[in-house]
Amino acid sequence: MKKIKVREVFLNNSDNSFSHFSYWGLINHKYEFDDGCFMGQSQSNMAHRVDNQMFTGLLDKSGKEIFDGDIVQIEGGGAITVAEVCYITPCYQLRIKNHGLHNFDAFDLIKVIGSIYENPELLK
To answer: Which CATH architecture does the domain made up of 4-123 adopt?
Structure first.
C-alpha cells in the first residue's frame, strides 16, 4: 500500500515567516502523527496553518521524501537546475523558472534542497 502523507505548513502569526512543518498520514493501514500535529493552545496562538502538501510517493537521490512544494536541484548534462515540485492534475511536475513545467524523470539526479515556504529565495 502506498504511503499517504501530508505535510502541513505553519507560518508565524507575527510576521508570516516560516514556523514549522507538521506531518501526518496513513502508513501501513495505521494513522501516524508527529508531535506537532496537535498543537497546544499556546503554540497555536503563535503560528497558523497555511497549506497542506502531499507526499509524491517519490524519493530523491539521497532517499529523502519529495513533497508538493519542495524545491529540488537537478544535476545533469553538466548543468544544475533548480525547480519547484507542483501538482498539476493529474500528476506531479517540476516547474522550472523560465522553462515551464516538466515531467519527473531521472530521480537519481534530483535532490531536495528546501521548500517554497522555508527557502523561497532558492527559486530566484
So the answer is: Roll (2.30)
Full strand arrangement of the beta sheet holding 70-76:
100-103, 91-96, 79-88, 70-76, 110-115
- In this predicted model, what pLDDT tens digit does every residue of 53-63 receive, in sequence order? 999 988 999 99
Nearest to 9 by CA among 48, 45, 35, 46: 48
Cβ neighbours of residue 81 under 8 Å, at least 6 residues apart?
Answer: 73, 74, 96
pLDDT for 29 equals 60
Distance between CA 124 and CA 70 in Å, rounded?
Answer: 14
Q: How far is CA 108 from its chain centroid?
A: 18
Q: Count other Cβ atoms within 10 Å, centred on residue 17.
A: 10
